[in-house]
């Protein structure tokens, strides 16, 4: 009898939470009863597997569905749209409730859009080529200073380069990361900074003879790169989304998703 009562109580509490979560989002989504989530076009591993966010596979795809569930939306109530990185970050009306494309939370961006609480704090890694490593480059700040660096002009890699690494020559700035990768492949630059999961992918798939020289732990920077869900400025869903992320953090679910999809890259030394 006690078991039945306990089970009934658990069901009631679970239903109450789902109701409360659904009530928080009621009337606040672009389409009533549906959560519209945006990602890149294409969306890359390990954030989204096989460019198919609807599968729920990949770190950001899995986090998106976990947040949706906490907000009271089942998988069948989630729809996906695609945007470019720069398009979504501009001020104005959006065609999504929130966007996940590894958006670093910065004060400048927060003047144009809203961000959720962070769902990922990223280590930054040094992407280079095996020839640069063979020429003597090491995972030390002294060694990194002497490399020729490149970066996408609008990313948070630029202040990290200038404030932490402080290279002896000015980094070359590019319009997008594809140009940065092309410059590494062509030997125009020696190295570039990317978040660790992206650097792992680029070194294995995109940059021929690619290598990871080392990684910075998040606490090596005064303001480690933190990713947040991007929303239209003033979006009333922010409170609901933040509550969902907080619950995922407190329950350990977010850490479990990170372990599954962004497991630590052993063999990539921490830069001293």
What would you note in describing this structure?
- The protein contains eleven helices and twelve strands.
- Helix 2 (59-70) packs across helix 10 (238-251) and helix 2 packs antiparallel against helix 11.
- The termini are far apart.
- Mean pLDDT is 88; it is low at 1-19.
- The protein has helices at 2-25, 59-70, 85-89, 107-110, 130-134, 141-145, 157-165, 177-186, 196-206, 238-251, 253-261; strands spanning 35-39, 78-82, 98-99, 113-115, 120-122, 124-129, 150-152, 172-174, 192-195, 210-216, 225-227, 230-232.
- The protein has two domains: 2-119 and 228-261, Periplasmic binding protein-like II (D-Maltodextrin-Binding Protein, domain 2, 3-Layer(aba) Sandwich); 122-220, 3-Layer(aba) Sandwich (D-Maltodextrin-Binding Protein, domain 2), CATH 3.40.190.10.
- The protein has 272 residues and is α/β, with parallel strands linked by helices.
- The strands form five sheets. A three-stranded parallel sheet has the order 2-1-3, with helices on one face.
- The relative contact order is 0.17.
Fold topology:
Blueprint: H1 2-25, E1 35-39, H2 59-70, E2 78-82, H3 85-89, E3 98-99, H4 107-110, E4 113-115, E5 120-122, E6 124-129, H5 130-134, H6 141-145, E7 150-152, H7 157-165, E8 172-174, H8 177-186, E9 192-195, H9 196-206, E10 210-216, E11 225-227, E12 230-232, H10 238-251, H11 253-261
Parallel strand pairs: 1-2, 1-3, 7-8
Antiparallel strand pairs: 4-12, 5-11, 6-9, 6-10
Helix pairs in contact: 2-10, 2-11
Notable characteristics:
272 residues; alpha/beta; D-Maltodextrin-Binding Protein, domain 2; three-stranded parallel beta sheet; three-stranded antiparallel beta sheet; 11 helices; 40% helix
